[in-house]
Amino acid sequence: MNHEADKLAIYLTNLGKYNEGELKGKWVTLPTDSELLEKVFQQIEIGEKYEEYFISDYESPLGIKVGEYENLDELNYLAYKLEDMNAEDLEKYEAILEIESVSSINEYINLTENIDCYDIIPDVTSKSELGQYVMEEMNGEILQQMMSFSTYFDYDQYGHDLDIEWGGSFVNDNYIYANGESAIEIYNGKRNDIPLDYIVTNSKIDEKKSIKEKLVDNQNKVKEISKSMSNEKNHIEL
After folding, report:
1. For residue 104, what are the β-bridge partners?
2. What values do phi and psi take at 119, rounded to 5?
3. Which of 10, 74, 82, 83 is deepest in the core (most CB within 10 A)?
4. For residues 99 and 176, what is the distance between their CA atoms, to the nearest angstrom?
5. Quick one: pLDDT band at residue 1, thresholds 50, 70, 90?
6. Contact predicate 70/108, CB 8 Å
7. Is the separation of the CB atoms in 112 and 85 below 8 Å?
8. 102/94 Cα distance (integer angstroms)
9. % the chain with pLDDT above 70
10. 88-95 contacts, C-beta under 8 A, 24 or more apart
């Protein structure tokens, strides 16, 4: 394995060879460019005889999940977005993934532009510490008015109520939660929305449906035929 440990990497595999019992693949570190990817395709024998490929393995330091049939241009776009983020933002991005259910590369890409929609309270590891932090930092005047009675304040219950209201989570000795700011969409899943510099597959490859899409299409066609036959049968019975 010869890719950089702190970057997204995928193991591209020749599907035809794989079905024949041979594992023909190569690691690709992202982001990459079209020339390097074309060399990889040649090395794993993707061409006229074998056209289909899939991702049989991947490495991600941020916990990003990659499917077998992801769009390579989308993955490259995501990798460039992650590369542009500084260490602090990457750490926050990783923490957000702990509390948000992200299921597509599209969502991963958009999240890179929406980390400001989340706040992190540092060095808070329990509901009691959360309640104490918020009370002291945001409601200091109330504590002063309470004077000696403040020692009887139930920080744990207050932190518990805040946690329910904010819907956050304790991640890496911090508390992270969505602050209510509106998210923006920079990518809607269409190839035209990907900057040209990030596109690494040629148009002919991109125009072909992925294996996953073909399977879905076939399943839908079978369902439509079955439904049509069922309707005809019901009509005859009537």
Report:
1. none
2. -120, 150
3. 10
4. 8
5. very low
6. no
7. yes
8. 12
9. 76
10. 89/115, 90/62, 91/172, 92/118, 92/120, 92/176, 93/62, 94/62, 94/63, 95/120, 95/171, 95/172, 95/174, 95/176
CA distances (Å), 155 to each of 12, 88, 151, in order? Answer: 52, 29, 10
CB neighbour class for 224 (10 Å; exposed up to 12, middle 13-18, buried from 19):
exposed
| 127-157 per-position pLDDT tens digit | 999 988 888 876 555 545 454 445 557 889 9
**Contact predicate 69/43, CB 8 Å:** no
**For residue 71, what are its two tokens?**
């769009």
Q: How, if at all, do strands 9-14 and 53-59 pair?
A: antiparallel
